[in-house]
Amino acid sequence: MHTVIEASYFIAAILFIFGLKRMSSPATARGGIVWAGAGMVVATLVSFLYPDMGNYLLMTTAIFIGGILAWYSGKKVSMTDMPQMIALYNGMGGGAAAAIAAVELFGGEDHGLVFGTLAVLGGMIGAVSFSGSLIAFAKLQGLLKRSFRFRGQQFFNMLLLVATVATAAYIVTGHGDVNTVAIFFLLALVLGVTMTVPIGGADMPVVISLYNALTGLAVAFEGFVLQNAAMIIAGTVVGAAGSLLTQLMAKAMNRSLANVLFSGFGEEGGEAGEVSGNMKPIEAADVAVMMAFANKVLIIPGYGMAVAQAQHKVWELTQLLQERGVDVKFAIHPVAGRMPGHMNVLLAEAGVPYDIIYDLDEVNPEFRTADVALVIGANDVVNPVARSDPSSPIYGMPILNADYAKNTVVIKRGQGAGFSGIENALFFLDNTRMLYGDGKAMASELINEIKLL
Ligand code: NAP
């Protein structure tokens, strides 16, 4: 039986790794999810084969309830609510790792220095990740509207961290009575809350990615304690992938992780920025002519396209233009929207083929030869002050060079700022026109106008 269990874990690990590999391209990502899911099914079913396993009824009931809830919420969730869904699921992972640690530590068994340390580390990180992710969920869901800050907050958090680590050390050195273990978990849970409440809601995706990496680490540590290969491998893979993603997001926003965690960015609304000139409105009929007779159109979707759920209309518009012989490409910024891959997922959902979707580095040289850059619900990712104004909070962030196109048309509802809260110099340029309205409604108008031509 031992060999069957180990062999199954090996298969599960291979499925996790190949699944992750397939997730690196939108074309194969769906398959990747299925592969990784199959790995998880194998790893879960194998638990039933352990010779000393009991509580089958409890296990089956828990799997059944969890499975139904996950299936239902996964089917029901809308694309714009995906970040908080991920926060919630990630929190559950951290909580599960902490629960495993709790079983080991409350059991009072002496694990020795190495495994004892791994158990408390996994427990601490898992508990922080659990409560922190729940706060992230509450913020993104709008249940927690304010960020709580007070003087000396970072010092307080540091004290809490020191107290948690000291309690952990006390437990590992053989003083782990039930009360100390309970205090340890309580401190770690409070730390997760106090670390997360001061961070602005808009920074939550980066924070969730960080907690995701931490959850992976916690699971891997507990895997060592339980001598469970699947947990070690899955945890390490999640930890590594989460760390890389966190780094990538921070880099694409040109911010350090410390700045994300401690600065309160986007909370105070940011500097308005000094931009001269006026915004020049345009009618859909004129934009339709501009696009229909263009050779090359680059479409830049942003958060507003997600809010408007305009992706299907945008694809319809693209097809109309393609039928007229216009070369249409999508230009995707790595942090457009509110979660990594947000735009890619929306465009994939609408059926836009991957070969007309381009990343920032690939597409930026094309703007100078584009007749029209159509910005739909994007703001910060096309703000040229990121290149020109060292005092701007987004200075240094790589942007899509929409301002280099011959004509730029921006679809947005009004004068609303983007996530960073600053003014966008692109909107005031001579070759920029503003098409005011909801993203979906405006895309529909453009479709109708082009059909009339
Ligand atoms: P953005 O800067 O947040 O701007 C979105 C724009 O969409 C707003 O100016 C808004 O203007 C417009 N809008 C909202 N609803 C709309 C609707 N229904 N129809 C049309 N327009 C609408 O978006 P972005 O350019 O995509 O930039 C993303 C920002 O989020 C970056 O600053 C990035 O650093 C940050 N961020 C991204 C991630 C990630 O992983 N993707 C994570 C954390 C933070 P109106 O109100 O005037 O319509």
Q: State the distance separating the first and last CA atoms.
A: 72 Å
* Helix-strand topology string: HHHHHHHHHHHEHHEHEHEHEEH
Oligomer: single chain
Percent helix range: 55-70%
Lateral strand order in the biggest sheet: 3-2-1-4-5-6
C-alpha-based Rg, rounded:
25 Å
Bound molecules: NADP nicotinamide-adenine-dinucleotide phosphate
The major β-sheet equals: 6 strands, parallel
Average pLDDT metric: 91
Provide the β-strand percentage band.
5-15%
Helical segment count:
17
Low-confidence sequence ranges: 268-272
The total beta strand count reads 6
> What would you call the shape?
elongated
The class by helix and strand makeup works out as: alpha/beta
Give the tags:
six-stranded parallel β-sheet, alpha/beta, 7% strand, binds NADP nicotinamide-adenine-dinucleotide phosphate, 453 residues, elongated
Please explain how this structure is put together:
Helices cover 60% and strands 7% of the residues. The protein is α/β, with parallel strands linked by helices. The longest helix is centred in the first third of the chain and has 29 residues, at 112-140. 44% of the residues are buried. Mean pLDDT is 91; it is low at 268-272.
Question: Short description, anyone?
Answer:
This protein is α/β, with parallel strands linked by helices and 453 residues long. It has helices at residues 2-22, 26-46, 56-76, 82-106, 112-140, 153-175, 178-196, 204-226, 229-252, 257-262, 284-292, 303-308, 311-323, 342-350, 360-363, 385-388, 439-452, and strands spanning 296-301, 327-332, 357-359, 372-376, 407-412, 432-436.
